[in-house]
Write a structure and sequence with these properties.
The protein is mostly beta strands. It has no helices and six strands. The strands form two sheets. Strands 1-2-3-4 form a four-stranded antiparallel beta sheet, with no helix packed on it. It has a two-stranded antiparallel ribbon with strand order 5-6. It is globular.
């Protein structure tokens, strides 16, 4: 194994990655804080810049997995919430 392209700084520790259906974008899910970043992929599959989203998105509580619908029109970030602990109420997924 060897590096392919330049390293990319991530917003947090990733928990799941996938590509869109045609393989032109890389989607990276994070759990703490819950989030998702989409990167353009170059034709040689190196990672380019993040895709700016048109507005802030609600990523729920504790993102766990990112999936792309076969239509390539919908991205789903699965969140799991957090159970109650030490007197703190449940963080419910949204």
């Amino acid at each position: 194994m060897h590096p392919h392209g330049n390293p990319v700084a991530l917003a947090a520790r990733p928990v799941h990655i996938t590509t869109d259906i045609p393989g032109t974008h890389l989607l990276v899910a994070f759990n703490d804080p819950s989030g998702l970043t989409v990167y353009d992929l170059a034709p040689d599959e190196t990672i380019r810049s993040p895709v700016k989203q048109p507005e802030p998105l609600d990523f729920g509580i504790y993102g766990h997995q990112v999936r792309v619908d076969p239509s390539n029109d919908v991205v789903i970030l699965v969140t799991r919430g957090n159970g109650p602990a030490k007197g703190k109420p449940e963080d419910r997924e949204r």
